[in-house]
Amino acid sequence: TLIWSGSAWGNEPAASHGTLAGTAGQNDLFDHAYETASGVRVSAEATLVLRVDEERLRPASFRLAARTGDRETACDLTFDGGRARGTLRRGGKEIAVDRKLPDGVVVLDETVLHYYRTLYRRYDFAGGGAQTAPVYFPSADTVLEAKLERGEPVRVRRDGKTETLERVTAAFGDLSVDLFGTREGRLFVLSCPDRMLTAGMPGYGDA
User: Fold this and answer.
1) Which of 16, 46, 11, 44 is closest to 28 using CA atoms?
2) Which of 65-69, 140-144, 200-204 has the highest mean pLDDT?
């Protein structure tokens, strides 16, 4: 459930094939459309294929067809040998992509909030303290460093009951996103106060 300025305004349905344990990887499929509180129509179809390597989920390929208002973006990328290769189309122009990526990079996209699950899993609760993770945004062909830091656990309501979730804050420059979940790496709630946006897994819509 997506909540903008305190009001529910859409959902981001997802379908995953494969899980982290006992398989070679995972397919995350997304197809959603909604209208923001300011009346901007957003739609996206995305497929992120992840593979398990040294107990981490690493990107194998990414495809995206998205529209925000009258702005269109499309990506078709593969990840191999530490590089992202393929094409990026935006503003009516097609760009060839061949970029070296840092080891352990996490793929995120501004149109798909579910991808933050992989970033949340990257935080090592046993180690604690401030940590970092490289992040690649395919639709902008940009690499940033996310600064991850554990905050105070919070109590939230799920299906009418109260439970405690861990908090990890991910900062990208002057933008920060709060991620709430379990120490085992399950993400349930994402909050971005700067954009008045909250997203919760089923049952956490009023968290």
Assistant:
1) 16
2) 140-144
